[in-house]
Amino acid sequence: MAVDDALDLLDLLMATKLLARAERAERASTRGRLRSLPRFAAASATLAAVVRVLLEATAASEGTGPGGWEASDVVSHTAVSLAEIWARIEQVAPRRQVRAALDVVVELSPPPEEDADAAWREQRIANDRSPERRVRRQWSEEAR
């Protein structure tokens, strides 16, 4: 009976300390993500403006809509040159800024093939150091 009480007390203490540590780690992680949001938002806005220019150029060259390009391009369905597209893009943002924005978005975004919850699950597994797991590990080591 005393062993059961001691194990219950140990379980309570371990869970309390582990939960507090996990909560602190989660708060720190959340603060880090919140700090990166302004950079991510600015970079995303830059890339969105660039993609809009690209889509407008595509629409103009395909004749599906003016998209802000010259009427002669739309009427003749002439392909818009890469130089013309970059000239339009640089009116929105210089190449250096576009590259920097892309670097920020790539840095702060998970890879496209990654499961959205995979990082969360990995963190939970890494933080799962429950007393039961420790006891099982210790017993398996002692049994060797």
Annotation keywords:
single chain; 144 residues; mainly alpha; 6 helices; 80% helix; 0% strand
Structure notes:
- This protein is mainly α and about 140 residues long.
- It is about 80% helix and about 0% strand.
- Helix 1 (about 1-60) packs across helix 3 and helix 1 (about 1-60) packs antiparallel against helix 4.
- It is rod-shaped, with a radius of gyration of 28 Å.
- The two termini are about 25 Å apart.
- Mean pLDDT is about 75; it is low at about 70-75.
Structural class of the helix and strand makeup? mainly alpha
Taken as a percent bin, the fraction of beta residues is under 5%
- Topology as a string of helices (H) and strands (E): HHHHHH
Task: Output mean pLDDT.
Answer: 75
Q: How would you sum up the global shape?
A: rod-shaped
Distance between the termini: 27 Å
Q: Sheet with the most strands?
A: none
What is the number of strand segments? Answer: 0
Chart the SSEs and their pairings.
Blueprint: H1 2-62, H2 71-76, H3 82-92, H4 95-108, H5 118-127, H6 131-143
Helix pairs in contact: 1-3, 1-4
Brief synopsis:
The protein has a domain at 24-113. α1 crosses α3 and α1 runs antiparallel to α4. The protein is mainly α and 144 residues long.
